[in-house]
Amino acid sequence: MAEKEGLDMFCYQCSQTAKGTGCTIRGTCGKVPTVARLQDNLIFAMKGIAAYLYHAKELGYEDPEIDAFLNRGFYSTFTNVNFDAEELVKLALEAGEINVRTMKLLKKAHIETYGEPEPTEVRTGTVKGHGIIATGHSLKALEELLKQTEGTGVNVYTHSELLPAHGYPGLKKYKHLVGNLGKAWFDQKQLFSEHPVAILGTSNCVLLPKEEYRDRMFTTGPAKLPGVKHIAGYDYTPVIEKARSLPELEDKPGDVVLTTGFSTSTILSLKDRIKELVEAGKIRRFFLVGGCDSPLKKAEYYREFVQQLPKDTVVLTLACGKFRINDMDLGDIDGIPRMIDLGQCNDSIVAIEIVQALSELFGVGINELPLTLNLSWMEQKAVAILWSLLSLGVKNIYLGPILPAWVNDDILKVLVDNYGIKLISDPVSDIKEMLSS
User: How far apart are alpha carbons 377 and 397 in whole angstroms?
Assistant: First the structure.
């Protein structure tokens, strides 16, 4: 990868930094911008791995090989350790491989603890009674909350990435897990202000609270917010007491019913039917549309994209990007739903397993499948997932609504030349191009 003039960087990790504030053109140590950005990329990917590993360890599952890679990977980003851009690309691909391993570990932890997810309809809107909204990613925290609220008259609602919890038999058995409120993470301030409930933030994706609900918000696990009570461990008595002190919610059903819980096993149980429909021309193409949602105006693209898809296509979705589209009724193709929710970002391994199984089913490589990945990018875990896909040889991924800021011209050239990465344009043009490939 040739270094280009004028590419910027920002590094301030040692006392040699330019003017004592930060190197912005080239490192005083000799580090060039592309190396600096690949180090940033590696850190982001490892943050994603660490997030998945945290939740696996919550449930007692560990893997020394993952720990060893994180130690080696973080060390390689120190000052004066690794200046090789080619080696950092290899490390990024290895991070992708380790992320696949980590997601498999987390999937095993979830299924062995809570059972195999199954397609489940989830109510929106509110049920009469006191309530708690749980947001974040921790099924362990949600389980403990459900145990402690059982028989108290307090209903529990999921928000954003906890929606897939409704598909797990070990969690949906709690009758007071009554539904899902809101959509992606960035609606918190409005959603939490509108509902007089206690709120439990279980992991990342918590926002600084508005004053009107700060005293009824709590955090647990790695999440912490200024002026918000943090609960170490899993004793949620303060959350429950706060919920019971607040006014009851009205019985007010939502406008839609969401469906989640399509596990790998569920999809593979339909593989013969899927193959039959593809070979008969009734299913022309599969689209994986999901990833991290963002409040950017450009993110509206994904809803428009799905609205424009032909009726002989199937949409797989996951992570909080699904909230752009999961309220849409796309119907089915001879019994196969056209909208299939594979879970949260922690469940991205399900999509990978399904793609690999379809590759075996049709006897072709992954890149020869009638499948297009159209992914949205927001934060670190999405970087880990992208490198996981690249490490598996997946090509021609569409990415948006914008490119990650750590991608400079050199890095983009590698992604385009080696992996066919494309930036989204407009829904109509993109669909035409995807269907012609």
Answer: 12
User: In the structure encoding, which two tokens stand for residue 410, read together?
Assistant: 């050199």
Whether 178 contacts 251, CB under 8 Å: no
Q: Which of 183, 184, 134, 182 is nearest to 154 (CA)?
A: 134
- Express each pLDDT in 316-356 by its tens digit: 999 999 999 999 999 999 999 999 999 999 899 999 999 99
Cis ω for the linkage preceding 401 (within 30 of 0):
yes
Query: pTM of whole model > 0.90?
Result: yes
163 and 344 Cβ atoms separated by less than 8 Å: yes
427 conformational bin, left if phi > 0, alpha if psi -120 to 50, beta if neither? alpha
Beta bridge partner(s), residue 399: 375, 423
Tokens representing 68 are: 């060893």
Q: How many residues does the chain have?
A: 437
DSSP strand pairing (120-126 vs 252-260): antiparallel
The predicted-structure confidence for 259-294, as pLDDT tens digits, reads as follows 999 999 999 999 999 999 999 999 999 999 999 999
- By three-state DSSP, how is residue 398 classified? strand
